[in-house]
């Protein structure tokens, strides 16, 4: 029987590109998003589509259970996410709460029903889309950095906690990928990668069952260094104009 993958936030960007790759490989692909009209016509019939917000715990649970009942469930990817767009020195707490709601609670709402299903069947693979932004507190992106740090930690703990149930866990940490999300950015985006290349790399990491995949390597290296710097040095570097990526 064909394998099945359910991807949240797959009406555009990384999720959509991944959904296309998996369909091409013969997978049953379930996708969700708040607005399915964003999906180009042919794909609406190639994917099993659910129009919902990942913040709607019940609707998302019903969608994942429904998708599983119709043909099984092997991989669940919590990919839906939003960002600040422009960086601001003054936190906007309304936006902060939206980001936390979608990027953290959305991931929990995705993983919870998947874990129940995987635990019963004795196998399954959880994938969380985090970000390199989760390794440090980036200036002007407090909520986004915090939300992605949560996804990285959640995946790391789940990998340990759920192993005995036959559940694999992968955290994906992309640098800048050219998608509608980054099109809104008004700052420089070093090492920006095309979405089709990014999706191919992510799929490879999922297929290999990687625990943590950070890419591109240049961004992985930068983050590795920033994370290990004494914090006073990190704070100093981040006050330099180039580090703020402000245009
Ligand atoms: N692009 C990058 O450089 C980059 C780097 C690191 C990490 N990421 C992460 O990668 C993931 C995908 O981002 P992307 O770049 O592909 O952005 P994108 O093109 O804006 O895609 C985001 C997807 O999430 C969906 N979405 C947003 N809020 C949702 C909600 N409440 N419920 C259900 N679906 C929702 C959107 O669909 P609807 O609007 O139809 O709901 C869309 O399909 C995000 O988690 C993002 O943080 C991106």
Could you characterize what this model shows?
With 247 residues, the chain is of the alpha/beta class. The chain has one domain (4-244): 3-Layer(aba) Sandwich (Rossmann fold). It has 10 helices and 9 strands. The protein has helices spanning 13-24, 41-46, 57-71, 93-121, 142-161, 180-183, 195-207, 217-228, 231-237, 241-244, and strands at residues 4-8, 28-33, 48-51, 75-78, 124-129, 167-174, 177-178, 193-194, 212-215. α4 runs parallel beside α5 (142-161). The mean pLDDT is 95. NADP nicotinamide-adenine-dinucleotide phosphate binds next to α1, β2, α4 and α6.
How many separate structural domains? 1
The chain-level structural class is: alpha/beta
**Tally the helices: what do you get?**
10
Which topology does CATH recognise?
Rossmann fold
Percentage of β-strand residues: 15-25%
Which strand order do you get reading across the main beta sheet? 3-2-1-4-5-6-9
What is the general shape? globular
Name the CATH class: Alpha Beta
- Helical content, roughly? 40-55%
What's the number of extended β-strand segments? 9
Biggest sheet character: 7 strands, parallel
Question: What's the average pLDDT?
Answer: 95
The low-confidence parts are none
Q: Report how far apart the termini are.
A: 51 Å
Order of helices and strands: EHEHEHEHEHEEHEHEHHH
